């Protein structure tokens, strides 16, 4: 399979706690992206990390990439009820002729007030 | 406002009927994509267009057809050959056909009567 796999499938936490989601993949990549989807809506791009980068921050989001382990993690700090959504990783695979992204199945995050 | 619009929000299909889902973007993006989303299966690529008058099949193109006559528009037709069309359909665009950020529309939910 060329797509990433998120872990866990579902995560439930209290407001104020940190949420960590992981993505593993099997091929060599050019970049890895994280997207968020609220129920019944389209996906929204959160952050892109390139294969030569190890860590990236955006507001309360922190993404790490370990190409030797073929894995990435998304950390949301001080979570809020509004962070409740599904989170997907997507990989831009090296050698992909179409320039396409491969999406995982997502982690469903629920943040309780 | 720049963005991607999809219509209708909900669509009902009868047996043997072809239906067309609309996708329009005013972001001046070259590349456009159609994905199908089923519960627990993430996003699967149906068709992809890198430039006007050109498109390629994705992983699940059977039973679907597209056209790309204008840069702004990438309609998807779900034909009667698609035996299990009930799903959430997402259209996306990116600035070019590379593996950069994709911008998603709000989606169309297709239901079979």
What do you see in this structure?
The complex is a heterodimer of chains A (about 110) and B (about 110). Chain A has about 110 residues and is mostly beta strands. Chain A is built from no helices and eleven strands. Chain A has strands at about 5, 10-15, 20-25, 30-35, 45-50, 55-60, 60-65, 70-75, 85-95, 100-105, 105-110. In chain A, the strands form two sheets. In chain A, strands 2, 4, 5, 9, 10 and 11 form a six-stranded mixed beta sheet that branches. A five-stranded antiparallel beta sheet of chain A has the order 1-3-8-7-6, with no helix packed on it. In chain A, a hairpin with an 8-residue loop joins strand 9 (about 85-95) and strand 10 (about 100-105). The radius of gyration of chain A is 14 Å and the shape is globular. The N and C termini of chain A lie far apart (about 35 Å). The mean pLDDT of chain A is about 95. Chain B has about 110 residues and is mainly β. In chain B, about 0% of the residues lie in helices and about 50% in strands. Chain B contains no helices and eleven strands. In chain B, strands 2, 4, 5, 6, 9, 10 and 11 form a seven-stranded mixed beta sheet that branches. In chain B, strand 5 and strand 6 form a beta hairpin. Chain B is globular and about 35 Å long. Chain B starts with a strand and ends with a strand. The mean pLDDT of chain B is about 95. Classes of the chains: A mainly beta (about 110), B mainly beta (about 110).
